[in-house]
Amino acid sequence: MPKNLRSFVWYFLKSHRWALVVFAIVTIVWSIELSLSPYLLKMVIDGVIRTAASPDQMLAVIILPAILYPCMSIVINLNFRMFDYTCLKIFPKIRADIVTSMFEYLSKHSHRYFAQHFSGNLSKKIFDLYSGIEPIIQIPNTNFIPVTIATILASVVMYSVHPIFCAVLSLWTVFFVSISYTLSKRSEALSYALSETDNQLGGNVVDSISNMISAKIFSNTRYEKTLISDAAIKLIDKDRKLQMHMLKTFFVQGLMVTTLSASMMVGLVYGRLHNWVSVGDFALVLNLSGYIIMNVWNVGKEMIRFSKEVGKCKQALNIISEPHEIQELPNAVPLILKQGNIKFEKVDFTYADNRSLFNELSVEIIAGQKVGLVGYSGGGKSTFVKLLLRLHDVNSGRILIDDQDIKTVSKDSLRNQIGFIPQDTELFHRSVFDNIRYGRLEASEKEIIAASKKAHCHEFIEQLPEGYQSLVGERGIKLSGGQKQRIAIARAILKNAPILLLDEATSALDSVTERYIQESLHAMMENKTTIVIAHRLSTLSEMDRILFFKNGKIIEDGSFETLLKIPDGHFKCLWEMQAGGFIPDMPFPERAE
After folding, report:
1. Residues 6+ apart with CB under 8 A from 363
2. pLDDT above 70: residue 505
3. Whole-angstrom Cα distance, residue 133 to residue 10?
4. To bridge 427 with a disulfide, which of 289, 305, 476, 493 should be the other Cys (CB 3.0-4.6 Å)?
């Protein structure tokens, strides 16, 4: 993905090279018409005055320019409709390509990237690029280039009247464009800053709305309003700075336009008094000056708009086009799973803030083995699973599945072989049916219902207003925690991957439902390599093996019964002091080391 805006625009425009040819034709025709129409009018006026004494000669003198003058209107109308048709053909496709390409690139970012950015802001950045691409392409082709050519042609035409008019127009145009360009660069910087502040406000709004239940429960809606209000005040300040700069810019441009109009009028009156300007010349210079002033003035305004769009799109591109933290090798091959043997080989891992977690961690999980991960918060259990899913990359060492380094295989093929049931279930704002089918998109309705029954969610789904077609709300807000967890379990059952990862998959269930689902989970674990992160030690009793994590190290490794027999063992201590079936977040003081 291109990292700078110019390359980004060309990346999406290069497949529409024919459109550039059309834009060039439109530009040339419009530029010629801008100077030719006033010149034809001059010919008509001068012809009428010159043949006033001989009416019979008048028609022969003015017939050609008189016919060509209205014909130019027809030509220019067809010219612009050709331009509109070209835009109609290419811009919807370019915008659609931007959305899909940006989403594809965004989806390859690491777990850490999404943890650092508001999801609402990222979607806004995609649509900033979506909406900004058209004016960034159009403005140069409808303003900058044609007006530049037209001004050059107008200077040549004015030279035929008197060199002074050519000199005045040329010098004024150079001065006007230089001043406008300088002011527009400041607009670009202010627009970039405004976009950053708008980004923060949008993130705060999305964050507050997403957590509105918490805000209500803690009676903190006013606090959330204050946070949003503070961000909005910053946005107002940035916006006013940009608007004030634009106001000053337009004022300066207005003064310059007045200067040109006055200069041309003085020159024409003086020339007419001294008989080196004809009546037709008078009309030509006034009309041509008016056209040029109007279009150059519009260029000045569009230059400001162009700079705003450029600043906004640059800011969006800088965020989205960050290099991918987890790179897939160009020659990555599909993971070929034979048994499901997992091996961590001298793995080092450090967080982004330079906190070290794993240091030469080595452990092997035999294919088909059911392994429980236990330990205090921050010990490394979740990171262990995320490294296996390659949501993070190791700093050194290797993670092997059936002797294949997961860095050398494609990420999709790796994750296709792993079923994952998280503790915090994330659901799409789609139907229940679609959320379950997400485990295997090609699954039939019969298979989806069968998986739902095994996960004991078929009963409550049938009671929903529209059954399996009921929408679950954003992130599944219409469902209870237990219902969402059962849908996640159904999704994993449907996927039926040979490696299974469970992060306390039944923590949100009542005891009766949990007992039934545990039976389904045990059946699903058969002949699968299974890793279970446990917060309730009772769920570990049927594991073949338990790994106890503490500060990034595996300090105990053995079966449930074996670990309970270790005098003063960490697992035994937890088992004895666990209240209500849950593991304390931190060791008790006497167990601290």
Report:
1. 343, 344, 547, 554, 557
2. no
3. 10
4. 476
Q: Kind and range of the H or E element at 555? A: strand 553-558
Q: Is 61 helix (H, G, I), strand (E, B) or coil?
A: helix
Which whole number is the average pLDDT over 408-430?
A: 88
**Which ranges constitute the DSSP H helices of 140-162?**
145-161
Cβ–Cβ under 8 Å, residues 566 and 572: yes
CA-CA distances (angstroms) from residue 154 to 28, 35, 271?
13, 5, 18
Residue 583 tokens, joined: 């593991």
Q: Which position has the higher pLDDT, 422 or 119?
A: 422
Q: Which CATH number fits domain 5-320: 2.60.410.10, 3.55.40.20, 1.10.287.3510, 1.20.1560.10?
A: 1.20.1560.10
Spatial separation of the C-alpha atoms in residues 568 and 459, rounded to whole Å: 46
The residues that bridge with 421 in the sheet, in sequence order, are 502
Comparing CA positions, the residue from 96, 126, 97 lying closest to residue 109 is: 126
Q: Is the pLDDT of residue 108 over 70?
A: yes
Domain boundaries of the chain, sorted by first residue: 5-320, 424-496
Question: What pTM value is reported for the model?
Answer: 0.75
| 299, amino acid identity | V
Instruction: Write out pLDDT tens, residues 440-492.
Output: 999 999 999 999 998 888 988 999 999 999 998 887 888 888 888 889 889 99
Q: Indicate the Cα dihedral angle 395, 399, 404, 408, nearest 10°.
A: -30
3-class secondary structure, 501: strand
Q: How many CA atoms lie within 13 A of 453 on its CB side?
A: 6
Query: What number does CATH give the domain 424-496?
Result: 3.40.50.300
Which tokens is 529 given?
Answer: 């390599």
Phi first, then psi: give them for residue 221, nearest 5 degrees: -65, -35
Bridge partner residues of 350 (DSSP): 356
| φ, ψ dihedrals at 421, nearest 5° | -115, 105
In DSSP terms, which residues pair with 546 in a beta bridge? 372, 558
Calpha distance 536→580 (Å, rounded) = 8
Judge whether residue 536 has pLDDT over 80: no
CA distance from start to end of the chain: 49
With the CA atoms of 99, 104, 105 and 110 taken in that order, what torsion angle do they form, in degrees rounded to the nearest 10?
130
Q: Which tokens in the block code for residue 540? A: 């570990």
Span 99-115, average pLDDT: 87
DSSP 324: P
- Residue 311 CA, chain-centre distance (Å), reads 15
Instruction: Count CA atoms within 13 Å of residue 571 on its CB side.
Output: 27
132: closest CA among 168, 103, 91? 91
